[in-house]
């Protein structure tokens, strides 16, 4: 069953997000205005070294006032491909330049309320190019053994949706690769 849209109006806008009211009609004929959060697309880098460790950042998120491990990630800039953004963010946030990026998984988190698109890429290998240029991103940067990731997720040391999707698919990718 498909919902119909009859128009929309923007009720808030800034460089980070837009909030729209969308005039929708459900299949049963009910019609109302539905809030939709419009977000810029996100690129995520799952960088794995030859010791089967993944590059992660320990960071604080003020919105939830919580510390957790995350994969390097950031917004895709105008004129930039998701792959380019993932590589750029990894280097800026960690000081490691990832090797060749390949698509790992695509996700649309909370697609009933937001149009956010998350593009997760895998890179096998990276070269250290210096300290991170983004100094406000993380408290520390570490190569975490893939064998530790499941316990970290179970212990709520990884809670970011984009990191969870990327790490879980990375683990699936590891066990299903020939």
Explain the overall architecture.
- The chain is α+β, with helices and mostly antiparallel strands and 178 residues long.
- The chain folds into two domains: 36 residues, no CATH class; 135 residues, Nucleoside Triphosphate Pyrophosphohydrolase.
- The protein contains three helices and twelve strands.
- The strands form four sheets. The protein has a four-stranded mixed sheet. Strands 1-2-3 form a three-stranded antiparallel sheet, with no helix packed on it.
- The radius of gyration is 18 Å and the shape is elongated.
Could you give the topology of this structure?
Blueprint: E1 4-13, E2 17-25, E3 31-39, E4 42-48, E5 53-61, E6 66-70, E7 73-75, H1 82-94, E8 96-98, E9 101-107, E10 118-124, E11 126-128, E12 140-145, H2 146-154, H3 161-176
Parallel strand pairs: 4-10
Antiparallel strand pairs: 1-2, 2-3, 4-7, 5-6, 5-12, 8-11, 9-10
Helix pairs in contact: 2-3
Give the gist of this structure.
The chain is α+β, with helices and mostly antiparallel strands.
Strand order of the largest sheet: 7-4-10-9
CATH topology of the largest domain: Nucleoside Triphosphate Pyrophosphohydrolase
Q: Indicate the CATH architecture of the largest domain.
A: Alpha-Beta Complex
Question: Number of helical runs?
Answer: 3
SSE run: EEEEEEEHEEEEEHH
Percent helix: 10-25%
Largest sheet: 4 strands, mixed
User: What overall geometry do the principal axes of the alpha carbons give?
Assistant: elongated
What low-confidence regions span 5 or more consecutive residues with pLDDT below 50? none
Output mean pLDDT: 95
Proportion of residues in extended strands: 35-45%
CATH class of the largest domain: Alpha Beta
Secondary structure class reads alpha+beta
Instruction: Please give the radius of gyration in angstroms.
Output: 18 Å
CATH superfamily of the largest domain: Nucleoside Triphosphate Pyrophosphohydrolase
């Amino acid at each position: 069953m498909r919902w119909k849209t009859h128009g929309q109006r923007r009720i808030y806008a800034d460089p980070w997000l837009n909030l729209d009211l969308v005039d929708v009609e459900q299949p049963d004929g009910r019609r109302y205005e539905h809030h939709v959060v419009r977000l810029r697309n996100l690129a995520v880098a799952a960088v794995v070294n030859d010791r089967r460790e993944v590059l992660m950042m320990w960071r604080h998120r003020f919105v939830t006032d919580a510390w957790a491990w995350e994969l390097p990630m950031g917004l895709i800039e105008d004129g930039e491909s998701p792959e380019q953004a993932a590589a750029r963010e990894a280097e800026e946030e960690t000081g490691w330049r990832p090797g060749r990026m390949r698509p790992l998984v695509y996700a649309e988190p909370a697609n009933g309320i937001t149009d956010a698109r998350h593009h997760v890429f895998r890179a096998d290998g990276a070269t250290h190019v210096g300290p991170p240029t983004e100094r406000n991103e993380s408290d520390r940067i570490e190569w975490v053994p893939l064998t530790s990731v499941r316990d970290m997720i179970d212990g709520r040391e990884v809670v970011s949706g984009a990191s969870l999707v990327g790490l879980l698919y990375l683990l699936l990718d590891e066990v299903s690769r020939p």
